[in-house]
Specification:
Strand content: under 5%
Structural class: mainly alpha
Helix content: over 70%
Distance between the termini: 172 Å
Number of helices: 2
Largest sheet: none
Order of helices and strands: HH
Number of strands: 0
C-alpha cells in the first residue's frame, strides 16, 4: 500500500520500513539501557546525536506507517463489512430456503393427510354404499321371495279352486253318467 501522498516512497501493504518503527523503538530502548549511568542517580547519559537521529527517523517513518496501518484497518473493516453482508445475505437465503422447505414439507404433509382422509372417507363411503346395496338387495330378495310365496299361494289357491270346480263338474258328470248307465241298464220293461 502506498504511504500517504504527502509521504515519501510507496511500499506494499504489510512491508515494514527499513529500519521499521519497531526496530527504531528497539534501538531507542537499547540506547537507554546501554547508556552509562550517572553515579548515585537513576539518570543515564546518552549520545544526543544518536538519540536525535533515531527520533528524527521515527518521526519520518511514523506518519507513513500510521497511514499504512490506517489503510490496513480500513481494508480490514471493509473486508469484515463485506463478509458480514455476505453472511447476512447467505443467512437470509438459507432462512428463506428453510422456510420454503418447511412450507413445502408442510404442504406435502397436509396433502398426504388430506389424501389419507379422502381415502378413508372414500373407503367408508364405499363400505356404506356396499352395505346399503347389500341391504337393498336383501330387501329386494326378501320382497321378491315374499311376492313369489304370495303368488305361489295365490296360484295354489286358484289351482285348488279350479280343481274343486272341476271336481264338482266331474262329480256332476259322473252322476249324470251313472244315471245314464243306470237308465240304460234298467230292463227295457220299465221303459
Amino acid at each position: 500500500m502506498a504511504r500517504d501522498e504527502a509521504g515519501a516512497s510507496e511500499q506494499p501493504v504489510g512491508a515494514l520500513p527499513l529500519p521499521g518503527v519497531i526496530e527504531i523503538l528497539d534501538q531507542l530502548a537499547a540506547l537507554a539501557s546501554t547508556a552509562p549511568r550517572v553515579p548515585w542517580s537513576s539518570r543515564a547519559v546518552v549520545d544526543a546525536d544518536e538519540l536525535a537521529a533515531l527520533v528524527t527517523e521515527l518521526r519520518e517513518r511514523l506518519p507513513g506507517d500510521l497511514a499504512e496501518a490506517h489503510q490496513i484497518i480500513l481494508q480490514r473493516q471493509a473486508i469484515l463489512l463485506d463478509a458480514e453482508i455476505a453472511a447476512r445475505d447467505l443467512l437470509t437465503e438459507a432462512e428463506a430456503e428453510a422456510d420454503r422447505l418447511v412450507r413445502q414439507h408442510t404442504v406435502l404433509r397436509e396433502a398426504e393427510a388430506r389424501a389419507a382422509r379422502l381415502t378413508d372417507e372414500a373407503s367408508r363411503r364405499s363400505e356404506d354404499q356396499l352395505a346399503q346395496a347389500k341391504a337393498t338387495a336383501d330387501s329386494l330378495i326378501t320382497t321378491a321371495q315374499t311376492e313369489a310365496d304370495q303368488q305361489r299361494q295365490a296360484a295354489d289357491a286358484y289351482s285348488l279352486e279350479v280343481l274343486r270346480r272341476l271336481e264338482g263338474q266331474l262329480t256332476g258328470f259322473l252322476v249324470s253318467v251313472r244315471k245314464g248307465i243306470s237308465a240304460l241298464e234298467e230292463p227295457t220293461e220299465r221303459r
